[in-house]
Amino acid sequence: MNTMTLWHISGWEFAALAAAALLVGFSKTAVSGANTVSLAVFAAVLPARASTGVLLPLLITGDVLAVLTYRRHAHWPTLWRLFPAVGAGVVAGTLFLVRAGDGVVRTSIGAILLLMAGVTVWRRRRAGAGEEPDAVTTRAGRVKARSYGVLGGFTTMVANAGGPVMSMYLLSAGFRKLGFLGTSAFFFLVVNVSKVPFSAGLGLIDGRSLLLDAALAVFVPPGALLGRWAVDRIDQRLFEQFVIAATVVGGVQLLLP
Fold first, then answer.
1. Are 113 and 250 in contact (CB under 8 A)?
2. The pTM is what?
3. What letter does residue 1 receive in the DSSP assignment?
4. Which of 25, 68, 114, 232 has an alpha carbon 20 to 30 Å from 1's alpha carbon atom?
5. Contact yes or no for 209/202 (Cβ under 8 A)
6. How many whole angstroms from its chain centre is CA 89?
7. For the chain, how many helices (H) and strands (E)?
8. Which stretches of the chain score pLDDT less than 50?
9. How far apart are CA 134 and CA 174, in angstroms?
10. Which residues have C-beta within 8 Å of that of residue 257, sequence separation ≥ 6?
């Protein structure tokens, strides 16, 4: 029995998952929020709960590639400040998944996607207004780090959708492109690896999901290479508009009965 038969997916659906895996790699080395599109595709093709378990190893593959690419640019004081709050958010997300059925998870993922799209638009407008970021060493900066950390941990556990949350935080903290990419690369590698025991304990990662991951993982490195090539050439504003629009469409689709 092959992977497509095991998961009851068609050739077109596998192609959609492969394209989403390619976008995972691209998002890790170019635009981190872009993987919300991958999340929407996986949740649309696969059962909502199962989709989070299948996507996680692919995200970790992309994280490893991003760390290898941007490892010299990470800002560890910011990372150490975020990790405790993220841990609390991951635990809260795990408790939610213990009680939530597939329909609730599907609706929650759709709502999170729309929330992240709205937050991204809000962040863009703030940046356009020229507001100064809060320094991470101030009290306001520490409160912001904890708030974003808890929200990022919860959204990444429930829906693998922590990218837009942490993108917002790092941009608001004043990170430039390489510092942003290096810090987020290490952040998501540590967080996503720490989620594996929780996901396995919930039955979201098993032999069946890993078999599909093995078939899709080969599409992540080409996406990462494409992202590294495009990071200095991409029209960031236009691409973010595309990501926001695709995220909204995916979120609405998941909320429809």
1. yes
2. 0.79
3. -
4. 25
5. no
6. 15
7. 12, 0
8. 1, 131-134
9. 8
10. none
